[in-house]
Amino acid sequence: MRIARFSRRNPTIVLGAVILAAVVLAALAAPWITGDPVLLIPADRLLPPGAKYWLGTDHLGRDIYARTVHGARISLLVGVTVAGLSVLIGLGIGLAAGYWRRVDAIVMRFMDGLMAIPAILLAIALVSLNKASVGIVIIAITIPEIPRVVRLVRSVVLTVREMPYIEAAVSGGSRGQKIVLRHILPSTIAPLIVQATYITASAILIEAGLSFLGAGVPPEIPTWGNMIAQSRLFVARAPWTVFAPGTALAMVILAVNLVGDGLRDFLDVRLARRM
Amino acid sequence: MTGTILRRLLSMLPVMGIVAICVFLLLHLAPGDPASIIAGENATPENIARIRTQLGLDQPVWKQFLVWLVALVQGDLGTSMFWGDPVSSLIAQRAEPTVSLAITTLLVAVFLAISIGVLAAAKAGSWIDRLVMGFAVLGFSVPVFVVGYVLIFVFAINLKWLPVQGYSPIADGLVLWLRNLVLPSVALGMAYVALIARITRTTMLDVLAEDYMRTARAKGVATRSMLFRHALKNAAVPIATIIGNGIALLIGGVVITETVFNIPGIGRLVVDAIARRDYPIIQGVIMVFSGVYVLVNLLVDLSYTLFDPRVRG
Amino acid sequence: MRTGMAAAGAAAAPAILSAQTRPPASRTIRTVMHGDIPTYDPIWTTANMSAYHGAMVYDQLFGVDDKLQPQPQMVSKYGVSDDQLTWTFELRDGLKFSDGTSVTAADAAASIRRWAVRSGTGQLMLQRLKDISAKDDKTFVVSLKERFPLLLDGFSSPSTPVLFVMRKKEAETDPMQKIDTIIGSGPFVMNQAETRAGSQYIYDKNPNYNPRSEPASASAGGKVVKVDRVIFQNMPDSQTAVAALQAGEIDFYEIPPIDLLDQIQTDPNINLINLADLGTVGYIGLNWLHPPFDNKLLRQSLLYIVNQEEMMKPTFVDRKWYAACGGWMTCGSPMENDANTGWFKGGPNLAKARELMKAGGYDGRPVVVLQATNIPYMMNAATVFAQQLRAAGYNVQLAPMDWANVVQRRANKGAPDQGGWNVFFTSSGGLSNANPYMIGGMATTGDKGWFGWPSDAKNEELRTKWINAPTLAERQAVGRELQENAWDIVPHMYYGQWRQPAAHRKNVTGWLKVPEAIPLWNVSKT
Q1: Which residues 262-281 of chain C have a CB within 8 Å of chain A?
Q2: Fold type of domain C280-498
Q3: End-to-end CA distance of chain B, in Å?
Q4: How much is the pTM?
């Protein structure tokens, strides 16, 4: 009953969540439901979708179905890890900056500096200057996201700090750490959850952009961005090479955004999207 | 007011200082060797070592940093390791296309986004709202290079309405200039439209929910003029913030869009420079982009005082 | 002697005028070459694009005709003494630099010296050189200590670094020091005012260029410029470049991706053209300093594993454009032979490879393969290579990175797990690769040599023998010996040979075939 009512009131969350659940399931089951995503058979290059290759093959003769499903793993891994890392790190820094004034000045200047560097340039530089690997890509996308989280958390802390119950706790003799953890932290959770969904979506997109510029994850590892970028020469000749990963990418971003929007309305968080 | 501006301008200094340190360390502590690339495929290790010495790349990193910083403070961004041109003049040559693209994109995006955002808010919950917002989310979900290729394929190759690539300086005529900018600014604007439209819609809804608006509606004041006069005025502040933050998004998108449409702008300059490790160009461009970002956000902050007198002080 | 300032000013005036008035599209050729010009000094760097730039603004003492035979270009008469030790050259009349001064023998002599330091053939000449001197304004003499049959081949070679003639003033610069002044006596003058480094390079017709009267043939004959302006546009995205060619926004594209050729061929306005018969050779560098490929048997095992066909197909699609080649020197060149190519004729043989791996004691340690991710043909070849090695039982670690990282990392002599490497991929021009001296990768001089540092005394002896062989037939014989030895020691390998066709609009004609350069003289637009 409850579930039915929740779905009726929040159709977007449910729709998004169903799509996401399906993708996650496919990603987890990838090794059992597809062939080898790395195996290449040059003789079978650029075959259209058919019985042997459900979604066709790419320019190296790799199975696009296998790569798309496996690509879900890396794309989701990148998205979720970036969101998780940037939220965790940003939360720590933001809480500290918001509560302790002395930390604030230094940290926020540093965050401003970090924010001023164009994210994609920072990421391109980090990835192309180092050996390409999923880890580097994750770090490269995470770093520019952190200041945005820090700002969000800090602004929540600043608002909450002034609340009477905090002042009461302070005058009651509670120590700083305790106040932060017990009273302030909980108020940041709702906006952070929403923010995390948007970071997930943008991380997956930035990964695609980096791949396009030749600064993404190693080409052997299938990700949707990677697949689109490597196949972009064949858009006219073999549209299926771009179609499968492109659709998957757009669908997941759409789903993540739907969940984010739904959560935002549900939790009534006004701040998150503005950061 | 002047005091505030001055104080804010001064506060830019430490920010830019941090940017300078980060960028320099990032580049010089990472692998990649411009000397090997300059020397060409057939060069001997000896030749490469000599070129490295000439470029000063064999000096300790802190020394290279000091040299660069001292020059930077004097407004000298250095010279390209490859062509020998001053970085500042390379950036100046490339500035027009990038600025043009950014401005047309911004105009297209803001105009489109605010219109559909307001429309969606006014018809909140209706199928128009859903359609418009669905489109907005979709615009956000497709990578800009995919949009770019589709646009080229349809409008330049098949319909032959617009050029495939390139940039025509304003000096060569306004029409030519615009023709070259239409496809790139639409491609780049998509994500931006999506972002601003959503914010416009939510802000508008928030404002519409405020007591005075409800009262006004209840009193039967004409909805349309209400929306634009009162609501938009109140929504201006968050929208301005988004534009400030969106500059980062725009700069990121410019890099990719310039590659797809072969626009000889600053984004291309830096992407090519990264591939070759032309350090002075990379450093110079990032400093300039960061400076623009900081400055735009400063202007946005100051614009709050215009939109909303309560913020003053 | 040199003309005065007034004449120089008068000569410079038309160039300034043309900088302000832009020639019409019908007199302008827009090209997209394979890359960006990294620097303007074609001697200082061996980068191909700098040589393309050089061919526009500088002229050569000798060119090659379409049979790759040296022919005089700036030289009018030349002769050699009976003992083959004294060469005399006379410059032809009317040669002028773009600053208005006349080209003199002193300029030529200084240019030869600077070039020689950077060129493989030039260095061999220097070892045998007694003196280069200008006898008068137009005559210079090269005197040698011992015979050097390849002198004219070196002077005329289209492979980088090319012997371009600069002013004495610039040519006396340390060859390791970059020249930024661009003053040549070639068929074009660079329009530096309108050039935008990294985006477009503009060359105007040199009004003072005085072409030879013979018809153009490769880089020999009259370099008659038939348009007012040539633009090199830098367009790294090949999809965009092909679209621009189809839309008529550019006239020539040097490297259309093979996969888009279908799309191009159906276009009635575009022609494909093959400008380099010997094409390009894919080179697999092997590291001789570290296991496993410090071991001859394990290197030999690669002969039975590497399948060039599979490495070529993903990029070059159709046999029309690529071929497998078992030769140590370019197939299709006079040096091609079939000595010691049993491994190639038999095709891949994993059983034989595993035998060699066992005999060589391969212990399962990872093979680190540097993979350049921003150069598609190298990236594809490395991906396939990894799969082939794995199938044979090698433990392969692909190390993907951009080209800038590859060129740095391959210089690292350390162990593969400490920043070094085992295998890298590159390519070289088919003409260069047909000569055991033209590229560093053919030498086996140990850790003083080129990346991979192979060391083999016999190969070095044979290379010296080759260079001193007076006739082509004798060189071919030594070539067989070289190859016999090479496929025993396996200094490096190849992943195939390809001929990348260029594409041009049909109304732009007169393209000349010169290996490793794209001449823009003789090209006209209707």
Answers
A1: 262-263
A2: Dipeptide-binding Protein; domain 3 (3.10.105)
A3: 8
A4: 0.81
